[in-house]
Amino acid sequence: MTTAIETTSGAPEQPGALPTVACCAPLARTPLSLAEAQGLAGVLKAVAEPARLRLISLVAAHEGGEACVCDLTEPLGLSQPTVSHHLRTLVDAGLLHREKRGVWAYYSLVPGALDEIARVLTTTTQS
Asked: Residue ranges of the HTH arsR-type domain (predicted)?
């Protein structure tokens, strides 16, 4: 079950969108609120699995920055349903974008999604 994440404007985002915490100050500058911590934990939980980290890497490195699920099963050594499950988790976390083309689904990184997570986790503070 997917739930909408509340933004700072109070409007619900689309399921799969990165939590509001992704646009906030680095942890070293401003403590996270409970809602921000829960949102960030959900995204980190999605990437805290070796197959999912490899999927992000495989999709990013694939020609054109997008890959079909059929291109990802062999490199991972997992069945198509398992790969599809992991891809859906990454889409729901707001890290991958899914585009249906005929019977195939193609995946690409959400522009800036990983950069936003890195920005929150950085210990460098900028004025």
From this structure: 32-127
Q: Are 29 and 126 in contact (CB under 8 A)?
A: no
d(CA 40, CA 82): 24
Taking only the tens place, the pLDDT of each residue in 81-99 is: 999 999 999 999 999 999 9
Task: Read off the pTM.
Answer: 0.76
26-81 tens-digit pLDDT? 676 788 889 988 988 999 999 999 999 999 999 999 999 999 999 999 999 999 99
* Structural domain count of the chain: 1
- H/E segment holding residue 80: helix 80-92
Is residue 9 domain-resident?
no
The CATH number covering residue 70 comes to: 1.10.10.10
- Domain of residue 59, residue span: 26-121
Is residue 19 within 8 Å of 43, Cβ to Cβ?
Answer: yes
Tell me whether residue 16 is in a domain: no
Asked if residue 40 belongs to a domain, the reply is yes
